[in-house]
Amino acid sequence: MSMNLLRLFSGRKATAPVARERLQILLAHERGLRGQPDLLATLREEILAVVSKHIQLDPDKVTVKLDRGPAVSTLEVDIEVPNNFEKTKAHAERRAGAA
Amino acid sequence: MANVLVVTSGKGGVGKTTSTAALGAALAQAGEKVVVIDFDVGLRNLDLVMGAERRVVFDLINVVQGVAKLQQALIRDKRLENLWLLPASQTRDKDALTDEGVGRVIEELRTKFDWILCDSPAGIERGAMLAMRYADQAVIVTNPEVSSVRDSDRIIGMLDSKTVKAEQGERVIKHILITRFDPARAARGEMLSIDDILEILATPLLGIIPESQDVLRASNVGSPVTLNNVASAPARAYTDAVRRLMGETVDMVVPTERRGLMNRLLGRRAA
């Protein structure tokens, strides 16, 4: 009551409820991840290993991002492939054949 | 029985060192034998806030490494005879703090003191982990602000998993200490309320320290706020918190500044 009255006079919106809600959503998510190995780091490592079998990659040019939405989340994998990709592919195949 | 209490937060600048000094001094005033330990290797400041910066000879790392005896490193407070300080090292050799070495020092302190207050560095690195490692109790210093609350939540998770108590299947007793609280702003909905913070962190409240100019005044002169101005709002809040730590039931109120007549007439806001 008094809070609403004060807000009326100050002409500003209360921001604390926004803070509380953001924290509640964030922490519910972060608490769930606690104690688990870092999912994104694991994904990044394994994707890098699979692609590296065929293409020579710079490990720094592989990014794995997870965007959390209210209903669905998107997993974004961004791999920068060098332009001499065909050569490296042939190289990898030769290597695989030799092995 | 000795109590090992870590003052921690995750986030920096929320008032860990101020709170360690204030709680330590208030406990000593209540007749307890207290040592406050600075775990912030390389960035020590508890000595400065306690006004003992010119009396540091040996430090925690010297004791851990066996270069100095505990008795040589402990600095007795000039105002309270049962308050002692164990300073951090200013060298940058953080790896010199070992789990085993810290454990040994804490064990020795347990035989000599009623309260061992560990002032944790910010962050979740080695120093912070070792500061909480042997704790029986934890005071989690939290500002009414989103990043501080988030970091407190993270620290609570660590207290429940990375401490010796947790590994033994026991629990570290945790308390939230809200600092820099502004009741007027919270009432206007501009600041997270006490209830918001407690609901999110699901941890009992030890005290509410109001935002106050007295805190800076006290650190300027190197005196814990509970000694520098006993009647000030933050000093009363810290003293109430200490009474709760000692098992008393004390009503939870936010102490306010006692404004002088001139301030009232001029309509100045209490800071």
Offer a concise description of the structure.
The complex is a heterodimer of chains A (99) and B (271). By secondary structure, chain A is an alpha+beta fold. Chain A has helices spanning 2-10, 16-33, 39-52, 85-98, and strands at 62-68, 73-79.
Provide an overview of this structure.
The complex is a heterodimer of chains A (99) and B (271). With 99 residues, chain A is an alpha+beta fold. Helices cover 56% and strands 14% of the residues of chain A. Chain A has 4 helices and 2 strands; from the N terminus they run H-H-H-E-E-H. Chain A has helices at residues 2-10, 16-33, 39-52, 85-98; strands at 62-68, 73-79. In chain A, strands 1-2 form a two-stranded antiparallel sheet. In chain A, a hairpin with a 4-residue loop joins strand 1 and strand 2 (73-79). The longest helix of chain A has 18 residues, at 16-33. Chain A starts with a helix and ends with a helix. The model of chain A has no long low-confidence stretch (mean pLDDT 76). Chain B has 271 residues and is an alpha/beta fold. Chain B has helices spanning 16-29, 46-49, 60-64, 70-73, 99-110, 126-133, 146-159, 164-167, 183-187, 194-201, 213-220, 225-228, 233-245, 261-266; strands spanning 3-8, 34-38, 75-76, 83-86, 115-119, 137-142, 173-181, 205-210. Chain B has an 8-stranded mixed sheet, with helices on both faces. In chain B, helix 1 crosses helix 13. The chains are: A alpha+beta (99), B alpha/beta (271). Chain A binds chain B through residues 2-3, 6-7, 10, 12-17, 19-20, 22-24, 26-27, 30-31, 34-35, and chain B through 145-146, 149-150, 153-154, 157, 161, 186-193, 196, 200.
